[in-house]
Amino acid sequence: MGRASLDKQPHEVAAMFDGVAARYDRTNTILSVGLDRTWRRATRHALGLRPGQRCLDLAAGTGVSTGELARSGAYLVGADLSLGMLGVGRRTRPDTVLLAGDAVALPFADGAFDAVTISFGLRNVVNPLAALKEMARVTRPGGRLVVCEFSAPVNRAFRRVYLGYLMRALPGLARRVSSNPEAYVYLAESIRAWPDQAGLATLVQKAGWTEVSWRNLTGGIVALHRAVRAR
Ligand SMILES: C[S@@+](CC[C@H](N)C(=O)[O-])C[C@H]1O[C@@H](n2cnc3c(N)ncnc32)[C@H](O)[C@@H]1O
Fold first, then answer.
1. What DSSP element (H or E) covers 117?
2. pLDDT at 182
3. Which residue, by CA, sits nearest to atom 26 of ligand 1?
4. Is this structure's pTM higher than 0.85?
5. Which of 18, 164, 189, 227 is surrounded by the fewest CB atoms within 10 Å?
6. Are 45 and 144 in contact (CB under 8 A)?
7. How many helices (H) and strands (E) does the chain have?
8. Ligand 1 centroid distance, CA of 228 (Å)
9. Is 10 touching ligand 1 by the criterion CB < 6 Å?
10. Is residue 69 lining ligand 1, measured as CB closer than 6 Å?
11. DSSP class of residue 87?
12. What confidence category does residue 5 fall into, taking pLDDT thresholds of 50, 70 and 90?
């Protein structure tokens, strides 16, 4: 694959993730120095799922986010566009329900879920506004949304150091640990191009969600956006 461009078609996004699937979980934990586990746990807490509730984990990939959320006792369904990621997930997490599905045309009925969530996936969806609207469609009125996504560190000095890591150190590190280092150049560039906390909140609101708020994790490297489906 050539240099990763931010202007991708859905099948190119899926192909890129097919290419990193084999080492995805391990690479993530190395590149985030283990922080991904803390962020996933915080996402589970933010969702506040109760046993028996139905929750969709969109862009579930290998199911690493889905597995963490299932610890709540809720019934989890993971969906993703990349058959390669789903294949690794089905092999390594046979108890996790992982289905093929596109974020902008989900194979679920209106109001099918009590909650919908997406971790480190919305940034990769070609049309995030359409995906947020589709997520609202499959959530019951009063149901919840949590978006866990890379965001903008709030402290300026920290932000400079972080962007340096992202644009210089991370691609080099990825060359040593990932099965497709180019995908991690894309990762860095897509994080830089993604809206900040307030920008994403506006997008979530525009998609029809209400009570939109956010909380920063690790100084704003990641933000958790929460919202409620209008009744
Ligand atoms: C960085 S991975 C995140 C995986 C997992 N949620 C996690 O927390 O590690 C992003 C995922 O988004 C998926 N994706 C991108 N566009 C998608 C779309 N339109 N519909 C469904 N999944 C999509 C990719 O295939 C990839 O598996």
1. strand 113-119
2. 81
3. 61
4. yes
5. 164
6. no
7. 10, 7
8. 22
9. yes
10. no
11. H
12. low
